[in-house]
Amino acid sequence: MSHDAMAPDDHDETTPGPRASRRAPKPRKRRRGLKITLGVLLVLLLAGGGTVYWLYSQLDGNIKGVDIDKALGEDRPEKLPTSGQNLLVLGSDSRAGAENKELGGGGNVSGARSDTALVVHIPEGRSKAVAVSIPRDTLVTRPECVEDGGSRVPAKDRVMFNSVYAQVGPVCVVKTVEKMSGVRIDHYLEINFAGFKDLVDAIGGVTVDVPQDIDDKASGLNLTAGPQKLNGTESLAYVRTRHGIGDGSDLGRIGLQQQFLIALLSEVKSQDLLGSPASSYKIANSATKSLTTDSGLASLTSLAEFGRSMNGVDPASMETIMLPVAYDKADPNRVVAAEPQAGQLWKAIREDTAIPEEAKKSPATGG
């Protein structure tokens, strides 16, 4: 899940050549950031000739791209000059393939849904960030969208947010988020369950401070409160658990998802990826195999450039907020955006201003 900032060097490190050095330059401290893609670039520099091309082609070919701009056209919020960067990050619970089906917890589940959704806002200056979680059970108005085959899907009120992905696809999810928030989404990142598991295993696990004992018989997750180092399978169960914490609703696990996101980003950033090319390649391969992005990021060079521009963002300083929601009056198992809090939150993100404290409070907590 799926970024940090640094200005590019004067020379282009993304262009491999037959004379590339076989020894990695000693990494400067400021280069040690959240840079899966920069690790890939070092691997490319360490190799030569056909090996360089093979590595680049394999990793570059892993990434799947979606042309969001072309699909949505001009029917989008205005991009304000001081609005910073906004990313929509989805964790997909696709059951496609044997590995994803196994990780899904068994059962006959068809299609895919956006199990986790975050709008990540990086203000101008790119020294901090805020991540807004959209509960999957939120009832939203799905705008009219166009499927991949060109068929138009009419707008519909009161649909669950996580069903939009399954019914129409990622472009419609972006359009739905833009319509409900008025926030222009600059980039789209999606990783599926199997990719999430492999990424955590590739970096050697992630340590989280478990807030309370968790015994989730549905997923088999059994953890005691306190610091715990989780492997990929355990991490996946941790961010998906519903019955092991809170009231059993989606809201209860959002705090775990946000906590894990910070821990994951901090772990990747703390590792000297540039000093360990083999580890960097393993991480990059795990990440790119299950990564879908907008077409603007769907290559190693594009990801590297974007990552360099965000190297100054410290995961430890990232603020995590749940979209303020209230229990739906007609169906208490569903939630709706709470006003005026949700409107205040989206307005602050659109205008790149401080988020009011009242806009961070949700009537429905899942506690």
What is this entry, summarized?
The protein is of the alpha+beta class. Helices cover 34% and strands 20% of the residues.
The radius of gyration over CA amounts to: 20 Å
Unreliable residue runs: 1-22, 29-37, 40-49, 95-110
Strand arrangement within the widest β-sheet reads: 1-14-9-2-3-4-15
Helices and strands, in order, run as: HHEHEHEEEEEEHHEHEEEEHHHEHEEEH
Q: How would you classify the quaternary structure?
A: single chain
Backbone shape: globular
The whole-number mean of residue pLDDT values reads: 78
Strand content range: 15-25%
Number of strands: 17
Determine the N-to-C terminus distance: 25 Å
Which structural class best describes the helix and strand composition? alpha+beta
Helix share, percent? 25-40%
The tally of helices reads: 12
Q: Tell me the major beta sheet.
A: 7 strands, mixed
What does this structure look like?
The protein is an alpha+beta fold and 367 residues long. 34% of the residues lie in helices and 20% in strands. The protein is built from 12 helices and 17 strands. It has helices spanning 36-46, 49-62, 68-72, 98-103, 163-167, 170-181, 193-202, 232-240, 250-270, 277-289, 300-308, 341-351; strands at residues 64-66, 85-92, 114-122, 130-133, 139-142, 145-146, 152-153, 156-160, 187-192, 206-210, 214-216, 221-223, 226-230, 291-294, 319-322, 325-327, 335-337. It is globular. Mean pLDDT is 78; it is low at 1-22, 29-37, 40-49 and 95-110.
